[in-house]
């Protein structure tokens, strides 16, 4: 599904990713954890195709095709969902209208018929029910005045409607409360399927109390320094990231 091989990337002239490799198979949930400044969000931004990052070596394959050659919209149409690709806030643009445009743009790019408003409404109702959400957020402006928790709920709702093959979620270090984390976790759990993979980037061990990942990675100093099962997250919970420092700079 997603195969990252020996990825090196710079911001400005500083190397942030230093040989990162990651292999995500269909249906798997991978957690990428790590200390602040390790390069987690950089990884997410590169997958999203954000400007300002230069890949200097290595490759990323999605579904057997080179991801880095695709524009952000092409990545979305191919089935990659990147939460942060969707506008943070667009005041005055109705959330439902926006989402329908995004979905139809993707369907069009794939050569599929666009959904009319009745069909879209049916899809929306179905997803609201799967996620146990009410329709409060639908009629507001996109993320307009949303709380952190509401933004997260909306992100998961967008994910549900767009039905990607691969979803990459960066739960930034910006103080999400436990309710917001739970919404992310419930959403991921409800939307797991044998054909859909998730990469959940998080600084928080506690998110993984609610999402049971198949694989846990520790990203430190621009590389994956440790990979394991869910027990790795528990180890981090007990010992923090300090013991990882030894692997980045032995004896330092
Ligand atoms: P994490 O998400 O793991 O906390 P980031 O990927 O946000 O780490 O950042 C990794 C390093 O790259 C940090 O030292 C950060 O300051 C630097 N960095 C990331 N993005 C930029 C940018 N756009 N401009 C300058 N430095 C950046
Ligand atoms: Mg950070
Ligand atoms: Mg980050």
UniProtKB/TrEMBL annotation:
Entry keyword set? ATP-binding, Nucleotide-binding
Q: What's the domain of life for this entry?
A: Bacteria
On whether Cytoplasm is a keyword of this UniProt record, the answer is no
ABC transporter domain sequence ranges: 2-246
Q: Which SMART domains match?
A: AAA
A Pfam family recorded for this sequence: ABC_tran
Tell me which InterPro entries the record gives: AAA+_ATPase, ABC_transporter-like_ATP-bd, FeS-cluster_ATPase_SufC, P-loop_NTPase
Gene3D superfamilies given in the database record: P-loop containing nucleotide triphosphate hydrolases
User: What is the similarity comment for this entry?
Assistant: Belongs to the ABC transporter superfamily. Ycf16 family.
PANTHER family named in the record:
ABC TRANSPORTER I FAMILY MEMBER 6, CHLOROPLASTIC
| Designated name of the protein | Fe-S cluster assembly ATPase SufC
- The record lists the organism as Luteimonas composti
Which gene does this sequence derive from? sufC
